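INFO  loader      accepted 1 record
INFO  loader      residues=352
INFO  predictor   begin
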Amino acid sequence: MRADTTFPQQAAERQAKLDTLHEKLTSAVESLVTGEDWRRAIEFAARFRSRSFNNTLLIWTQHQAAFEHGRVPTPLPSHVAGYRQWQSQGRQVDKGQAGYLIFAPVTGRFASSTPKDPASWRRLGPAEKPAAGETVRSRMVGAKPAYVWDVTQTTGDPIPELPVPRLLTGQAPAGLWDGLARIVADRGYTLHDAPDAEYLDGANGVTHWLRKTVHVRTDMDDAARTRTLAHEVGHLLLHNRDDVDAVVHRGIAEVEAESVALMIAAAHGMDTDQYTIPYVATWASRVPGQSAVETIQATAARVRTAALTLLDQLDTTQIDDGALPSLTKPLARTTASEPVAERPRRREGRSL
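INFO  predictor   done
INFO  writer      dumping tokens
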């Protein structure tokens, strides 16, 4: 403790620094999600919604065959669209590229004066107009063959992509991993290594409530592994398998855990901007009923309390004076492929 301040004064200063750090995170995320790049990427994704399971299988098998014959450069399809849809995006299907045959829905217009009665709906003709007061809805009435092409079969304007988290590189502060590992053990969980992200369904780390385990992948630099462990410890402190927000509104839980990781890292002089800002922005944007900024603001009190609790439990060298590392550097545009906590299936644990 510094000679010129009391312990309560130091505690208040530390709380104020964490509050400032959270405000800077909020500002950085707001700048990102209101930017033109983010808007274009969201609009693009909305036009390329996922297709039916049957069509997904058709696309996948035909793309695999095209890859085996050297017609496409990658084994897995990504963005798939029709000929004119690609033209609307400023891209053109390459000469000689065969499309993938799928089933396109055929819809019809139906009208009813009493829409709550299922038997009251009648199909309208091609040019028929509904009667006064009738409700009109479109329904799928069949399917027809259609062709689509993967983005790798086209050339033209760049595809807008959302900023993605980039793994940290280098070494973490001395003792931080060990201190976080002790917290995991103190809470009755066991810490395990995972060989890679594939082992964790695409994640960097996973907390499993029922098994009381925490896994962190080993094929990352020390700084990335330590930040990941701080994120999982944030889950341990803030969430559990009965937590509605953690299970139903997963975005809130991910925002909280990553914000805790940011504060723990910053208190030790680590800069996690390149991972934290895109990660938090993506998850905060998925919470229904409120904006990304509102989600982050709503987590401030819980995040700060958790971070202070963890910092008190860590026997590590922490920044004492001066401001914590800021989040004021420009957001770098990347083309990295670091996963953003996506899961091919729902799992019982929480992860990052």
